Sequence to fold (284 residues):
Amino acid sequence: MALRRFISVGACGMLTAAFPNLAVAQATPVGMTDNPCPPPAPAPPRAILEAMMKPGAKSAMPTPDANDPAYQAYLKRTQDERSRDFGAVCRFKPDNAALHAPPHVVFMGDSITESWQVGDPGLFTSGILDRGISGQTSPQMLLRFYQDVIALHPQVVHIMAGTNDIAGNTGPTTAADFLNNVRAMIDLAQAHGVKVILASILPTDRFPWAPALHPAAQVIDLNTQLHALAIQRGIVWADYYTATATPGGAFKPELSNDGVHPNTDGFARMRPIFDAALQEATRK
Fold:
């Protein structure tokens, strides 16, 4: 699955530096309608994303052809999503409608989750679906949680959120607001018999799109609170942080090319943690 929203200005996206800033188009007011979603645009070439995840690919960032019609359609789709669809509920409507059977696991998250399918494609087989959207914060995930998780009737949901809340992608927020959004997603899942894997926030000591912020300590604090929440709710805790962090709270440089997103080696380090978490969730 390609990452259609990686170019969002200020978004948690591996290609942020590769794209120019986008002006947000003003949407024409539209009321309630049976067809609110624009046609999906072609995604950027998967080769770009694969190149960005290759271990050691810290320079020579590949860029798309600005005159490519598919790229222009991609830019327009991104502008449309920003101006008219805060939660990006349109993003997976066609994919959800095309499903023929309930998935085993749904991954809910931001660009780290969205890029997971490119970084470890072998994971997303046998009924494991990726429903990550680049740049998203927890309130956006909560808005689409019923549609993209509950309505699909999975056995398990994997929730990874927090990086973009810390970065302030959708505006200033508080730790309490973030945790309440995570609680609400857990509540929805448990009320519908969906087992929950709650993932730690991955380590980072910088955001390329928000260089004034220094998030390492806040990541540690929120992970402490998320772990306590997992224990309180009796759900599975997937601690990716410990396996990927340096002693100072940065992403281990061999596991990430930009200090925020795993590269293929980073996803390989995370895979056994997920496998163990899924086995535990299945037994509960």
